[in-house]
Amino acid sequence: MGRPQIGENTVIEDNVTFGENVKVGHNVIIYEGTTVGNNVAIQDNAVIGKQPIRARNSILPDTKGLAAAKIGSEVTIGTSAIIYAECEIADNVFIADLTTVRERVKIGENTIIGRGVAVENDCRVGENCKLETNCYITAYSDLEDYVFIAPCAVTTNDNFMGRSKERFKNFKGVTVKTGGRIGANSTILPGRIIEEDAAVAAASVVTKDILKEEIVVGSPAKKMRSVPKEQLLRNQNK
After folding, report:
1. Per-residue pLDDT tens digits for 152-193
2. In whole angstroms, what is the distance from residue 147 CA to residue 127 CA?
3. Structure pTM?
4. Could you tell me if 215 and 199 are in contact, meaning their C-beta atoms sit under 8 angstroms apart?
5. Is there a domain that residue 43 lies in?
6. What is the β-pairing status of strands 187-188 and 205-206?
7. Which has the closest alpha carbon to 41: 93, 106, 84?
8. Is residue 57 a part of any domain in this protein?
9. Sign of the C-alpha dihedral, residues 62, 72, 19, 46?
10. Which residue range forms the structural domain that includes residue 23?
11. Longest dimension (CA), the chain
């Protein structure tokens, strides 16, 4: 176990383990049992391993005692970022300032999570993804590898906006398969699937599944053309 460089006013609870060459900024909180790999930078005011809370009048189930967070090696966690309990952050992940990663989220290697991004509970984000500033990844979503989400794109998981408990039986996040790309200010409706290498143009509203290698545009989004061959993931030098 390494001996981290720790800033002022930082709180590290019991049974936290650190790899080699870890730097922890000022006013950081790292909760009990968190594991941190080698060559990790945790910047000022970050919170790691936080247990979730819920509103008193929420009808969602209470969640207590989740497993500790796991932070891989070569990870950067930006200023005022919050990583909840039972998150698994793989190696070489960059998490920018003011980002929130909720409970039970898994983030794959070499992924970049931009400033102010919110990744809600029970999501999976694959390897080599890029989620840009202020995009929103709704709960129960699945993003495979090499996915690109542009700034301020929004995903949703509730078709009903209802007032009864019935709506909680119908939550379903979105799926973006390998190489899928979503443009700025787009909205993806609940349960939609964006197939491999499909692209959603900026400001589009996706109401139906998007087929492999299609480019869609508009509200509702419709096929404009196919992705040019030179832009397909399989034709890139990874």
Report:
1. 999 999 887 777 777 777 789 999 999 999 999 999 999 999
2. 8
3. 0.95
4. yes
5. yes
6. parallel
7. 93
8. no
9. negative
10. 5-52+64-235
11. 56
